[in-house]
TrEMBL record:
It is a multi-pass membrane protein. Residues 1-130 form the ABC transmembrane type-1 domain. Keywords: ATP-binding, Membrane, Nucleotide-binding, Transmembrane, Transmembrane helix. The chain crosses the membrane at residues 70-95, 107-125. InterPro entries: AAA+_ATPase, ABC1_TM_dom, ABC1_TM_sf, ABC_transporter-like_ATP-bd, ABC_transporter-like_CS, P-loop_NTPase, Type_1_exporter. One of its GO terms (molecular function) is ABC-type oligopeptide transporter activity. It is found in: Membrane. This is ATP-binding cassette permease mdl1. GO terms for cellular component: mitochondrial inner membrane. One of its GO terms (biological process) is oligopeptide export from mitochondrion.
Length: 455
């Protein structure tokens, strides 16, 4: 009986911990999305969802309370009934002259002590089971071994003195094992190249950067840098050589200076200013009365006191100050207007020229203004296959390839409320179809194919 009760209490304690975890998750998510919730006027729905989570905790705690109540009151009742029984039997014995009053009194004293100790043990058992239930989850988490370890492996000195290669990559995300992103991706990026990857949304552009940073391992095939398989490298060391900027920059609460120097120790004012100028952030920072010491709120709650484009530029400066050997920008300037973006892209091209062979730049982009400053363009299609790969000037001027190239660019550029069409002359229909985004209409016309899409 006690074992069954103990098992149930342990189970409930675990459920309460799980429910608490769910509630924390919901709270964090909803607080972070406060503005979105308000903009959709969905506060009532969200409060209801939150209440549901609270109710789950309430119900399991209530059940635990009831079980404990039944167990303890049952124990207490049994103890008292036993004492009364003993008194009745003892009084009978005294009446018959079998024992004295002193004998009964001392027996009762021993019985009370023993009974309360056993009762105390039951209490201890209950608390122990509750503790085990709650701790089980924690031990499970502690025992989890990451598939990718960051501190083991080689620290290869000449790592960035060679090319980057993606060889025969087959990959799907762990949560979508039936949806492959790449079936056989082969891609080489030469040391010091300035490459741009374009392609329709969902074609796997960002996944290439995730694989390069080894956030995931491919199912088969491998990524090598200067012929070193990145699986053999010390990840912390390897990642310290890479500068990675995402579309959604995460700034930390603190000053602009603290944010820019996040990844470096002892950066001088000149270095900070240089990085800010490269990312075209210097001018707007200097317009603030406190300059680099301007405080910005936490961006995790969406309240950083900066615009999206300003956040992106600070995030870029934070990466550039590290002097990365490989710079990966995943739509990192998408929030800038085309003029500001053009300046940033020109600065990066100049940096690439000044540091010939010392910095490899990999851009992921949608806009022509970002793309045209790159030397080499790689175009992916919807199936994660490389369908065009060449130098911008060649792709741009070749009537055959240029045409398909434009189709690809068009496919990824036309997103917004624009109704657009591109007329392709000399483009083989199969290639145009491979590159056109889903939902587009391909209409054969004299001299080529016309692609139309409604925004
Ligand atoms: N964390 C993830 N878990 C599961 N699937 C994912 C994950 N991230 C991306 N995917 C899927 O992988 C595919 C490729 O995504 P990826 O982000 O690389 O595309 P993309 O070309 O960068 O798209 P976009 O231009 O819209 O940013 C998509 O089908 C996407 O749904």
């Amino acid at each position: 009986m006690s074992t069954v009760y103990g098992r149930r209490i342990k189970q409930l304690s675990r459920t309460i911990q799980d429910n608490l975890g769910d509630m924390t998750k919901v709270t964090e998510e909803k607080l972070n999305g406060l503005k979105t919730i308000q903009s959709f006027a969905q506060q009532t729905k969200v409060v209801h969802e939150y209440n549901q989570e609270i109710k789950k905790i309430f119900n399991s705690s209530m059940l635990e309370g009831k079980l404990s109540g039944i167990y303890f009151s049952g124990n207490g009742f049994l103890g008292n009934v036993t004492m009364i029984g003993l008194l009745v039997i003892g009084t009978n014995f005294i009446g018959r002259g079998d024992i004295s009053i002193g004998d009964l009194s001392s027996f009762m004293m021993y019985a009370v002590y023993t009974g309360s100790s056993v009762f105390g043990l039951g209490n201890f058992y209950t608390e122990l089971m509750k503790g085990i239930g709650a701790a089980e989850r924690i031990f499970e988490l502690i025992e989890l071994k990451p598939k990718i370890t960051t501190s083991l492996g080689e620290k290869v000195k000449d790592l960035t003195e060679g090319d980057i290669k993606f060889s025969n990559i087959r990959f799907n995300y762990p949560s979508r094992s039936d949806t492959p992103v790449f079936n056989n991706l082969n891609l080489g990026i030469k040391r010091g190249e300035h490459v741009c990857i374009v392609g329709p949304s969902g074609s796997g552009k960002s996944t290439i950067s995730q694989l390069l940073l080894r956030f995931y391992d491919p199912i088969s095939g491998g990524v090598t840098v200067n012929n070193h398989d990145i699986k053999d490298l010390n990840l912390n060391f390897y990642r310290s050589l890479i500068g990675y900027v995402q579309q959604e920059p995460l700034l930390f609460s603190g000053t602009i200076r603290e944010n820019i120097t996040f990844g470096v120790k002892d950066a001088s004012d000149e270095e900070i200013a240089y990085a800010a100028k490269l990312s075209n952030a210097y001018d707007f920072i200097m317009e603030f009365p406190d300059g680099f010491d301007t405080y910005i709120g936490p961006s995790s709650t969406g309240s950083a006191q900066l615009s999206g484009g300003q956040k992106q530029r600070i995030s870029l400066a934070r990466t550039l100050i590290k002097h990365p050997k490989i710079l990966v920008l995943d739509e990192a300037t998408s929030a800038l207007d085309s003029h500001l973006e053009e300046v940033v892209m020109r600065n990066l091209s100049q940096l690439s020229r000044e540091k010939t062979g010392e910095i490899t730049i990999l851009l992921i982009a949608h806009r022509l203004s970002t793309i045209k400053n790159s030397e080499r363009i790689i175009v992916l299609n919807n199936h994660g296959e490389v369908v065009e790969d060449g130098y911008f000037s060649v792709l741009y001027s070749d009537p055959d390839i240029g045409f398909v190239f434009f189709a690809a660019i068009w496919g990824v550029v036309v997103y917004g409320p624009v109704t657009s069409w591109v007329q392709l002359s000399h483009a083989p229909a199969a290639r145009a179809r491979a590159l056109a985004p889903s939902g587009a209409r391909l209409v054969p016309v004299a001299g080529g194919i016309r692609i139309t899409a409604r925004g």
